[in-house]
Design a protein that fits this description.
single chain; 633 residues; alpha/beta; 8-stranded parallel β-barrel; 7-stranded mixed β-sheet; 18 helices; binds beta-D-galactopyranose
Length: 633
């Protein structure tokens, strides 16, 4: 398949006589796709039931006429002002009970059924009008679910929906009281309408109550998305896409993805490093203008799986953004490197955000491919270069990964409800495990928690998975490779209580967690032979073999030939050593990558990316800072 490039464009932001010039320029830049429409509701329907589609018809004609393929967005992330007048209770409410206001975007509540109907209606109208138009070659539903912390809402609509959801799930309050252990602190209910949302309690709400609310809230996102997907499918055969974000765990992307055709995500590597990822000051300084060398790959691998093999980058950072605490410019070369890295991980398309920098409103300091005065911004020439390189390079395909990581959104909610240590967070732990495999140069797949077949892999990691699903437990019992699981895996019931007998319940091996410790920063559990556990340490019992221990003689890794349980959270160096020993045992080739280099094999090529801000050597080849190198395998 030939990879393609695209751009995010807002015809409604520019005079109409600019559109044809922009379209021609996009084509000349080597772009194939243009995404439009996703924030245009106030111009599509200026007043309730009053439509003005003419501008959008003309924009589609101009862009399509220039030879571009269009991704048409449903505008439901930006309900217009009249919508809030029509449904005053549609605003999401924060955990402090304060309604969020009109005046930016995403001010809707996922559980508000009236707003959901409005979204169904606009999706139907757009589907009817544009669904058969051949230039509309893909659809984007809404924009970035959960952006600006919008999955959870503590509104009346959410409370009512939650009560119904609980009644459906538990059938009786007796069953719910038992499942949640509500006898503790006299928290028992005798009717579902007594059950409030888990906010503003005196001390922490009961963990299963919080977990149930998180499950309910995720289900609202799934349902909200499905309403539009079902509607669009009546009118179009074009693929349906959502643009997910990085490090968002508030809803189950596996479930949303099941209703769509392609998973795309929005990649802002520099904003992310500054705003959303851990790292020492020295690390953040070293990668200031390149982004975390593993964050993009992690999300490519995650969303390739969420998209059942089909993944795009819908928004690629081209220059400084406006929303992080600090917004440096990328090193020259990064707009190209990020695109090639996405392609090497299976992306079909990379769209940059955005065509021209807007001189007005909230994102006026956000770079595009063109400056507000229409002169080229620095990334434009890199995009042209990528377009030429795509033409020159035959399809690189995708290679089977040797290693896999199980990623479970439900566990993220459980550990948010019950972190037990301030630094314990599911994404952070899973990402640490991912980074170890990536530093070793492995190709990695990310798997959903109900995976029932591991036979393609030599190595599988499953850190922090609250409860192993039956299919996964089964797959582990027949696994011929090595599973490295834990810490905190299979140590709770589905209702977030402690099982008896104590977990984990692992096939063919006897291990249980008898006591759990969490540690503050700068404290650690030392391991015999060097290395340490940070943040988290579980005391293990059982008859399984001990493969590593602490300097106090407590088990650090227990298990058997095919399955090892990790008792703690290793720091990066320790994790590297544990993984290299396992790879050596399994006969998996690893690369000792320096801090900036990363590799990814495709079916035909090995790609090497230099994330460092200085040139690096790769087997006799010098790769400049922000450089990409590829060689035939
Ligand atoms: C994304 C969003 C875009 C734009 C961009 C700026 O989160 O989808 O609409 O706001 O960030 O970086």
């Amino acid at each position: 398949m030939k990879r393609t490039l695209g751009i995010c464009y807002y015809p409604e932001h520019w005079p109409e006589d600019q559109w044809a010039k922009d379209a021609a320029h996009m084509v000349a830049t080597g772009l194939t796709w243009v995404r439009i429409g996703e924030f245009g509701w106030s111009r599509m329907e200026p007043a309730p039931g009053t439509f003005s589609w003419d501008w959008l018809d003309r924009a589609i004609d101009v862009l399509g006429g220039a030879g571009l393929k269009i991704i048409l967005g449903t505008p439901t992330a930006t309900p217009p002002r009249w919508m809030v007048d029509k449904h005053p209770d549609m605003l999401a409410v924060d955990a402090q009970g304060r309604p969020r206001k009109f005046g930016s975007r995403r001010h809707y509540d996922f559980s508000h059924l009236g707003y959901r109907d409005e979204c169904r209606r606009i999706a139907r109208l757009m589907g009817e009008r544009y669904g058969k138009n051949p230039v509309i070659a893909a659809w984007q539903i809404d924009n970035e679910y959960d952006c600006h912390d919008t999955t959870l809402s503590f509104s009346d609509a959410a409370r009512k929906g939650f009560q119904d959801w609980l009644a459906q799930k538990y059938q009786s309050t007796d069953a719910l009281n038992r499942a949640w252990g509500n006898v503790f602190w006299s928290m028992e209910y005798d009717s579902f309408d007594q059950i409030d949302l888990p906010n503003l309690t005196v001390t922490e709400p009961n963990h299963p109550h919080q977990l149930a609310f998180r499950r309910f809230s995720s289900d609202q996102v799934v349902a909200f998305n499905k309403v539009q997907a079902d509607e669009l499918r009546k009118h179009t055969d074009a693929p349906l896409i959502h643009n997910y974000m990085g490090r968002i765990t508030t809803f189950d992307h596996w479930k949303v993805g099941a209703d769509l055709d392609i998973a795309s995500w929005d990649s802002y590597p520099i904003g992310f490093l500054s705003d959303r990822l851990e790292g020492t000051p020295a690390f953040k300084q070293a990668f200031l203008r390149q982004g975390h060398p593993d964050n993009q790959a992690f999300h490519h691998d995650l969303y390739r799986a969420v998209g059942k093999g089909r993944m795009w980058v819908m928004e690629q950072q081209p220059g400084p953004v406006n929303w992080a605490p600090y917004n440096p410019a990328p090193l020259p070369g990064m707009a190209r490197l990020w695109a090639w890295e996405a392609f090497a991980h299976g992306a079909e398309t990379v769209c940059y955000f955005r065509w021209r920098q807007a001189p007005f409103a909230q994102e006026q300091m956000h770079a595009g491919l063109l400056r507000p005065d229409n002169a080229p911004a620095p990334a434009l020439v890199e995009v042209r270069q990528v377009a030429d390189e795509i033409e020159a390079l035959a399809d690189v395909g995708t290679a089977q990964a040797q290693a896999a990581l199980v990623f479970d959104y439900g566990s993220a909610w459980a550990w948010d409800a019950q972190p037990q240590g301030a630094d314990f967070e599911m994404f952070r732990l899973a990402f640490a495990a991912y980074c170890v495999m990536r530093r070793a140069g492995l190709n990695i797949d990310i798997l959903p928690p109900d995976t029932g077949d591991l036979s393609d892999y030599k190595l599988v990691m499953a850190p922090g998975v609250m409860t192993l699903s039956d299919p996964l437990r089964n797959a582990l019992s027949n696994f011929k490779g090595m599973a490295l699981i834990g810490p905190r895996t299979d140590t709770k019931t589905d209702e977030l209580s402690i099982p008896t007998p104590l977990g984990p319940d692992l096939p063919n091996t006897d291990i249980s967690v008898s006591l759990t410790e969490s540690m503050p920063p700068n404290d650690a559990i030392a391991l015999e032979g060097g290395g340490q556990f940070v943040h988290w340490f579980e005391h293990l019992e059982g008859t399984a073999d001990v493969f590593a221990q602490t300097t106090n003689g407590q088990p650090a890794i227990m298990g058997n030939a095919n399955l090892r349980y990790l008792a703690g959270w290793p720091d990066d160096r320790t994790f590297d050593n544990i993984l290299s020993a396992i790879c050596a045992e399994l006969g998996i080739e690893t690369h000792m990558l320096t801090d900036g280099l990363r590799v990814r094999d495709t079916a035909t090529h090995r790609f090497v990316f230099n994330y460092a801000n200085t040139a690096q050597e790769w087997r006799g080849t010098t790769i400049p800072a922000a450089g990409v190198h590829w060689e035939l395998l």
